[in-house]
Specification:
Radius of gyration: 26 Å
Strand order of the largest sheet: 1-4-20-7
Structural class: alpha+beta
Distance between the termini: 24 Å
Number of helices: 12
Oligomer: single chain
Length: 587
């Protein structure tokens, strides 16, 4: 596993190199003015070699490949038509995210938010009940799989798409915080971090987190400065965000074509992430000859093989380092668990997506600014999806008819009143007041004697959008993009497949937005969505311990609502590669 590089503290490095650079009078090729010279205004050219490889990541050198299903379409779905595309270089976790990584995440959330906002911790809990099946005895997995040390290095499951994204954001901040501590700029003080007063990368860049400093900062060469400053994006010290891979990135990495190519010639097309067309190891001279290359179902009722010769050595999932890695050094890109990717599902994605870095799911956002043009103060309260909270409460009330006591019904009625008041506040752009209403509702739940109070607390927690410490974000507007040609509106999920222009009603003069759309984009409306395909339906890739070999083929694709989870879906994180696509000294 890749580790952090052993570097000198950044402050010392930058001090020394800036001094040498100023002595050498490195000058601008555009203006001739010297860099790093306070007498010239102090414009800095900081030393930079290349992007550091974050913990757990492997560099995936990008390129062109045929994306999609290139073998028989057994389900006759025709939703993965082959198409040649190009993906840029990026980083990808060498293994799936494990139970132990998730427990570390839960521990941090409980330490920061547990006293004031326990609902934030509840939101991050995996759904361990996904192990239950009506005709199977799986209670031991419900009880032990997540927390018992025997499963410490097994992939986490029961995690929905939204939870996976929250983990990626948390991981970004913890890695960048450690970099600043390692470089001698911050002091690690766990006791001082609570609620909104904790490190996030965005808040640090926006000047809204100072923490306990181990040094005054980096030298600020501007003439009238205090002499020191915080790290900036331009310094290249902090890493880009961890995130889910796109569908194209995941499929490209799974194929691992770098292992069977010479120059620009790919010698053999792959069916699986390994060479050959067999699911067993066919290296006749190798140690593992004849053994299965991945964890999947070999045949009807055969989840693990015969005692004494278990064919995949796993009844459910297996440890994340089990089986040989592919040619990129990635483990379990076929079998073990299927994996979430970023993309919104559409049947015709192959026809609609671009040839370069294909992806469906863009919703463009920007930071909220104050009246002076600065970044608005970060949240110091929990922000809820009001439509989602209302949907949950009404659905819970509907499904519980005849079983609610007067106390239960009174609690739900009071909560719905809070929601209505919050929606009115939001309509009047009183965002803080709107979310305080829901927080008042959560406080009401905490003091209630109702037996359904825990259900309501957990259900509302699922609709948390932002937590204390997050910067305020909003979707971009058409008005601020008047003269743009590449995009106008914020939400581009429906583009070419689901928007009004791609609907059969495209030429109706009396059309309304929602009634004439191809897909139901609001699954939080009462009664639920009218179709399985919505703007919240996400793609997951690869086979799992419960699938036949067919789904271990990288081109296969399936979909699930972003709020649902199963015992067969996990994930791994990716990170954008900036600069050279091939790495240090290989340009």
């Amino acid at each position: 596993m890749n580790k952090f590089k052993n570097l000198l503290p950044a402050a010392a490095v930058v001090f020394g190199l800036l001094f040498m650079a100023s002595c050498a009078k490195d000058r601008s090729g555009a203006t001739g003015w010297a860099y790093n010279d306070p007498s010239n205004g102090g414009f800095e050219k900081t030393p930079f070699v290349e992007q550091e490889t974050g913990p757990g990541l492997v560099l995936i050198e990008g390129g062109t490949f045929t994306m999609g299903r290139v073998e028989d379409d057994l389900g006759y779905e025709w939703d993965a038509i082959p198409r040649r595309v190009t993906v840029s270089s990026y980083y990808l976790d060498e293994t799936e995210v494990t139970n132990f990584f998730w427990l570390e995440y839960l521990h941090w959330l409980d330490r920061i938010y547990g006293d004031s906002y326990p609902e934030i911790v509840n939101k991050a809990l995996p759904d361990t009940l996904v192990w239950r099946e009506k005709m199977e005895y799986n209670e031991p997995y419900v009880e032990y799989y997540l927390r018992h040390p025997a499963y410490r290095d097994y992939p986490v499951v029961g995690v929905n798409w939204l939870q996976a994204n929250d983990f990626c954001a948390w991981r970004t901040d913890r890695v960048n915080e450690l970099i600043l501590i390692r470089e001698g700029l911050l002091v690690h003080n766990a006791e001082a971090q609570v609620d909104e007063d904790h490190f996030t990368t965005d808040a640090y860049f926006a000047g809204q987190y100072e923490g306990e400093k181990a040094a005054d900062g980096l030298p600020d060469l501007r003439p009238n400065s205090s002499g020191y400053r915080n790290v900036r994006m331009e310094d290249g010290i902090l890493l880009p965000r961890y995130r889910l891979p796109t569908e194209a990135e995941w499929e490209y990495a799974a194929l691992g074509l770098i292992g069977n190519s010479y120059q620009e010639l790919i010698s053999d097309r792959r069916t699986y992430p390994w060479n050959g067309h067999y699911v067993r190891n066919d290296d006749s001279g190798g140690r593992f000859y004849g053994q299965l290359n991945a964890n999947f179902v070999r045949g009807r009722g055969d989840m693990m093989g015969v005692a004494g010769a278990l064919n995949d050595n796993a009844d459910i999932t297996s440890p994340v380092f089990a089986y040989a890695p592919n040619d990129y050094g990635l483990y379990n890109m076929a079998g073990n668990v299927s994996e979430w990717v970023m993309d919104v599902y559409r049947p015709l994605s192959a026809q609609d997506k671009s040839e370069f870095r294909p992806f469906r799911g863009n919703v463009y956002q920007t930071r909220v600014l104050n009246s002076e043009g600065g970044v608005e103060d970060k949240y110091d309260f929990v922000v809820y999806d009001l439509e989602g909270v209302e949907y949950f409460l009404k659905e819970y009330q509907k499904k519980s008819q005849g079983r609610l006591t007067d106390t239960d019904q009174n609690l739900i009625d009071n909560l719905l009143t809070y929601v209505e008041q919050a929606k009115q506040d939001e309509k009047n752009r009183l965002i803080d007041e709107a979310n305080q209403r829901i927080q008042d509702g959560m406080d009401l739940i905490a003091t209630s004697d109702s037996k359904i109070a825990p259900d309501l607390r957990d259900g509302i927690a699922d609709y948390i959008d932002y937590t204390p410490g997050d910067l305020r974000q909003r979707e971009v507007t058409v008005a601020e993009n008047i003269d743009r040609r590449n995009y106008r509106q914020a939400d581009n999920i429906d583009y070419r497949d689901g928007d009004l222009s791609s609907s059969i009603y495209y030429n109706r003069q009396d059309r309304n937005d929602d009634p004439f759309k191809m897909y139901d984009s609001k699954p939080t409306t009462p009664g639920g969505p009218s179709t399985l395909i919505t703007n919240r339906t996400r793609v997951y890739k690869g086979g799992s311990w419960r699938d036949r070999a067919y789904y271990t083929i990288p081109g296969t694709r399936r979909f699930l609502d972003e709020r649902q989870a199963t015992a067969t879906i996990g994930f791994r994180c990716a990170m954008t590669r900036v600069g050279s696509p091939v790495g240090f000294n290989q340009e």
